[in-house]
């Protein structure tokens, strides 16, 4: 009898893990494609970001315009999702440059064609939500899916 209970418990754990992986894959499929932020102004500097998500690759292009001069930087990451947490979590791992292998911790919410992310500075604790307070070292990024 105890062997049957053990087998049932093991099957339950297996199915729960499988459902979680299916949910994670479904969420990754929803994130695929091109995303763009609205222009924002921070301390007089215009900024905007575009993101392309392809498989587990996350490519971020950041544009900054200051004093009539524009600068563009492209950064590549890989990412992992944790869909079992509330809010949902995303870990972005730098794929290149001096930060290669370092991880940025964030939370995200996906509502149709809108993606909201809240990041902590590298090495800091993951944000608990989407409220960014002055001096927190956290950043809020609002993206909208680019229509084909």
Report the sheet-strand fraction: over 45%
**Major sheet characteristics:** 8 strands, antiparallel, barrel
Would you give the CATH topology? Lipocalin
Low-confidence stretches: 5-17
Secondary structure: helix percent: 10-25%
**CATH C-level category:** Mainly Beta
Can you lay out the helices and strands and say which pair or pack?
Elements: H1 2-31, E1 33-37, E2 40-42, E3 45-54, E4 57-66, E5 69-82, E6 88-94, E7 103-111, E8 114-120, E9 138-145
Antiparallel strand pairs: 1-3, 1-9, 2-3, 3-4, 4-5, 5-6, 6-7, 7-8, 8-9
Task: Put the structure in a nutshell.
This protein has one helix spanning 2-31; strands spanning 33-37, 40-42, 45-54, 57-66, 69-82, 88-94, 103-111, 114-120, 138-145. It is an alpha+beta fold and 148 residues long.
Structure description:
- With 148 residues, the protein is α+β, with helices and mostly antiparallel strands.
- The protein has one domain: Lipocalin (Beta Barrel).
- It is 20% helix and 49% strand.
- The chain has 1 helix and 9 strands.
- Strands 1-3-4-5-6-7-8-9 form an 8-stranded antiparallel β-barrel.
- Strand 4 and strand 5 form a beta hairpin.
- About 9% of the residues have low confidence.
């Amino acid at each position: 009898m105890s062997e049957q209970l053990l087998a049932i418990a093991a099957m339950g754990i297996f199915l729960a893990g499988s459902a979680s992986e299916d949910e994670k894959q479904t969420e990754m499929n929803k994130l695929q494609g091109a995303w763009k932020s609205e222009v924002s102004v921070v301390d007089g500097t215009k900024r905007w970001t575009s993101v392309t998500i392809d498989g587990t690759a996350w490519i971020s292009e950041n544009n900054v315009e200051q004093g009539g001069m524009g600068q563009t930087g492209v950064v590549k990451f890989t990412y992992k999702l944790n869909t079992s947490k509330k809010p949902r979590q995303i870990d972005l791992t730098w794929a290149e440059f001096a930060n290669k292998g370092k991880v940025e911790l964030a939370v995200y919410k996906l509502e149709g064609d809108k993606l909201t992310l809240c990041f902590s500075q590298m090495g800091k604790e993951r944000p608990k939500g989407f409220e960014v307070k002055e001096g927190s070292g956290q950043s809020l990024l609002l993206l909208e899916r680019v229509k084909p």
